[in-house]
Design goal:
The complex is a heterodimer. Chain A has 13 helices and no strands. Chain A is mostly helical. Chain A has a single domain, classed as Orthogonal Bundle (MetI-like fold). The longest helix of chain A is centred in the N-terminal third of the chain and has 32 residues. Chain A starts with 11 loop residues before the first helix and ends in an 11-residue tail after the last helix. Chain B has 2 domains: 163 residues, Periplasmic binding protein-like II (D-Maltodextrin-Binding Protein, domain 2, 3-Layer(aba) Sandwich); 200 residues, D-Maltodextrin-Binding Protein, domain 2 (3-Layer(aba) Sandwich). In chain B, the strands form 4 sheets. A 5-stranded mixed β-sheet of chain B has the order 2-1-3-12-6. A 4-stranded mixed β-sheet of chain B has the order 8-9-7-10. Chain B has a two-stranded antiparallel ribbon with strand order 4-5. Classes of the chains: A mainly alpha, B alpha/beta. At the A-B interface, helix 12 of A face helix 20 of B. Chain B: It is found in: Periplasm. Chain B: Part of a binding-protein-dependent transport system for a sugar. Chain B: This is Probable sugar-binding periplasmic protein.
Chain lengths: 300, 414
């Protein structure tokens, strides 16, 4: 009779192989996160010190108009980018899926912006949108002397310029992901829908999209991560200006920590960013990844 | 075949190594002087150093402003790959490096040449001292408190050439009519600079010192400071919408070409006029202290020499240090850079109108102001910059709101 192996030693090789990753996760992600939260309650300036000041850094943070403007901008940027990149990306993918000619060419064209760094995207759009030699000048030269397009110079609109540039860069990727999802849909479903006389748009809306749920979730995660960390695009396109009208939280954190030597304040800001993400993420993750006993599947 | 090619590589590398040993010393000098006028000034230093014979200046310009270059320079020194010499700003840029014993001690050379006798204002040299020893060479004096104007732009608009800020504001409507931008400015630090100049020169030395040195909230909230915010509100009406993201030298070139009438910018702007071949007094003019209270702060650049294991390099460093303070170099370099020399005993006959005005102001030590960098932490400076740029861009923000927040910042400043 063979003895049952001691549980922690089962699959020992696999466990040893996973150790570096586990250590990385624990030290780098969990460890640094805890460190960040801890030091956000101190008065650390250039160098970290354990001089606790309670919620002082947070009080100052929410009294600083640059931070509140940053949060508002992130909300605008996030909602618009999310909505439009999903909608535009899906429509592009659906159009591409009509067995058109030169599909490869179009796919390359739409995906190309994603190969550029945000810095390049930012500069290109800065040139396009600057009143002195961009869109505004072209339209004026066409004869519309009073045409004005102050999207980069009027603080009320700059965040939308960032949304536009971000969409230009990101939609291609969404399209590629969606296209892959569409290609996975069995042709039989289309045939069945056609036999039943269901119009194409209804088929998409009520049959195809629900079937593509996993693809949508993947896309959502990728876009959301890109939204929260948006930084380089803003630096290249507007550098937060005019004034503070297009500031974003990541830039506030960077500036406070590295160029203004106020670690405590920067860490408090990043803790708030983390908390915001968690508030949105945790309920969703619980809902999405909860074990599904009821459907008759047995969890492994 | 393989054996021979390996031998060839080895032989070449030995040869290269030997060759670099033969040369007295290649001194790599890092700096961030990259705009037209600045590059010309760096070239003056390089060519006069090469002329001394033997050692060679290897230029290590780092593109971007000090905020980009400073971390690169510091991390190279900390990482054990020091350059021969490096530019930094006068003040506290290298304080930690000096404390860690990473810089060459220049005290012996300084005593021998008697630096303390001729460097003025003396606080420039004090900034280089740590525990009584000297670790850097100040090379120039830069001050923020200048306004550069293009007289031809005013003539073209049919307005009198202003001699102070108030006249400048009065002439603005005529300039606007002609399509000339009254005040050229650019990204955040330039706008913040406008405010700091106004505080010093429209407010006067007393107010400036009360706010910078004593961090007096009473002064910051008082009617005098309110007048500064009011003037700053005037200034935001004088800038063109295209100022967003503009570099300082682009703004200077707008003034240079007459597309803009004036710019409030430190005296480094004068280097740009020099490179373009413009003459002070005719093609352009300057209003030190906005023509109201002539007082200048005395920041500037200094050279530091990181410690090096190679004695040849140390020798070359001392030679460069001695050259930097020499009379000839001071004259030639500062003429190109548009800054003021650090020596009080040299003949600045060759200096242009504007530099002469600056030298004259500095001869009276009452006119010397501390700079923001000496008074405020970078955190406080950043808060003020956020406030001034927000105010400048958002015309709905009132003077009262801005001042209230200003008082708060000054109150928290350490």
């Amino acid at each position: 009779m063979s003895r049952r192996p001691f549980a922690p030693l089962r699959n020992l090789n696999a466990k040893i192989a996973a150790v570096p990753m586990i250590v990385t996760v624990l030290v780098v992600f969990v460890g640094c996160t805890l460190w960040t939260v801890l030091y956000s309650f101190t008065s650390s300036r250039s160098l970290p010190t354990l001089d606790f000041v309670g919620f002082d850094q947070y009080t100052r943070l929410f009294r600083t108009s640059r931070w509140t403007v940053s949060l508002k901008n992130l909300a605008i940027f996030g909602l618009l980018s999310l909505a439009f990149s999903l909608i535009i990306g899906f429509i592009l993918a659906a159009l591409m899926d009509q067995k058109i000619r030169f599909e490869n060419t179009f796919r390359t064209i739409f995906l190309y912006p994603h190969a550029l760094s945000f810095i390049v995207t930012g500069l290109v759009w800065q040139w396009i949108l600057t009143p002195a030699y961009g869109v505004q000048k072209v339209v004026r030269d066409l004869g519309f002397e009073t045409f004005s397009f102050p999207i980069l110079t009027d603080g009320r609109f700059t965040i939308y310029a960032i949304v536009i540039a971000g969409l230009w860069q990101g939609t291609g990727l969404v399209m590629a992901l969606m296209l892959a999802g569409l290609r996975n849909i069995d042709d039989e479903i289309w045939k069945a829908a056609r036999v039943d006389g269901i119009p194409a748009w209804k088929t998409y809306l009520f049959i195809i999209i629900p079937m593509m749920r996993p693809v949508f979730i993947t896309t959502l995660v990728i876009i959301s991560a890109a939204i929260v960390k948006v930084y380089d695009l803003v630096v290249a396109l507007t550098n937060g200006g005019p004034g503070i009208s297009s500031e974003v939280p990541a830039k506030y954190v960077y500036d406070l920590m590295f160029s203004r030597g106020n670690l405590g304040q920067g860490l408090a800001a990043s803790t708030i960013m983390l908390t915001t993400v968690l508030i949105i993420l945790v309920p969703w993750a619980l809902l999405e990844f909860r074990p599904r006993y009821r459907k008759g599947k047995i969890p492994k | 075949m393989r054996y021979r090619s390996i031998m060839a590589v080895l032989a070449t590398s030995t040869f290269l190594f030997a060759a670099s040993q033969v040369r007295a010393a290649d001194l790599e000098v890092t700096h961030w002087w990259t705009s037209g006028g600045e590059a010309a000034a760096a070239k003056v230093l390089a060519s006069s150093y090469d002329k001394l014979g033997g050692d060679k200046w290897v230029d290590g310009a780092i593109a971007g402003s000090g905020s980009t270059a400073r971390p690169i320079i510091v991390s190279r020194i900390l990482g054990g790959n020091p350059m021969g010499a490096t530019q930094l700003n006068t003040g506290r840029d290298a304080e930690d490096l000096v404390k860690a014993g990473l810089m060459t001690d220049l005290t012996e050379l300084a005593t021998k040449e008697g630096w303390a006798d001729f460097i003025r204002p003396s606080k420039l040299l004090d900034a280089c001292k740590y525990e009584g020893k000297i670790y850097c060479v100040p090379v120039n004096i830069h001050s923020w408190q200048w306004m550069w104007i293009n007289p031809n732009a005013f003539k073209q608009a049919g307005a009198a050439v202003p001699t102070n800020w108030q006249e400048f504001v009065a002439a603005a409507p005529k300039l606007k009519e002609k399509g000339i931008i009254p005040l050229a400015t650019g990204d955040a630090w330039q706008i913040d600079g406008v405010f700091r100049v106004m505080l010093a020169n429209l407010g006067g030395k007393d107010l400036y010192l009360k706010i910078l040195d004593q961090k007096s909230t009473e002064a910051a909230g008082g009617p005098e400071t309110k007048a500064i915010w009011q003037a700053f509100a005037d200034a935001r009406e004088l800038a063109d919408p295209g100022y967003v993201g503009r570099q300082w030298n682009e703004a200077t070139s707008l003034v240079l070409t007459g597309k803009a009438a004036g710019q409030i910018m430190g005296d480094w702007a004068q280097g740009e006029f020099g490179v373009a071949g413009k003459v002070a007094g005719t093609d352009y003019d300057c209003l030190p202290g906005l023509g109201v209270h002539p007082a200048l702060d005395t920041g500037g650049d200094a050279f530091y020499f990181p410690k090096n294991a190679n004695p040849e390099i140390t020798k070359a460093q001392l030679k460069l240090a001695s050259m930097l303070v020499s009379k000839e170099t001071q004259v030639a370099f500062n003429l190109a850079k548009g800054s003021l020399p650090i020596r009080g005993d040299i003949d600045m006959q060759a200096a242009n109108e504007c530099m002469k005005k600056g030298i004259k102001i500095l001869t009276d030590s009452n006119n010397v102001l501390p700079s923001y960098e000496q008074a405020f932490s970078s955190d406080t400076q950043g808060q003020i910059e956020d406030l001034t740029t927000e105010f400048f861009a958002d015309k709905t923000m009132t003077v009262e709101d801005a001042q209230a927040r200003y008082v708060e910042i000054i109150g928290e400043a350490k």
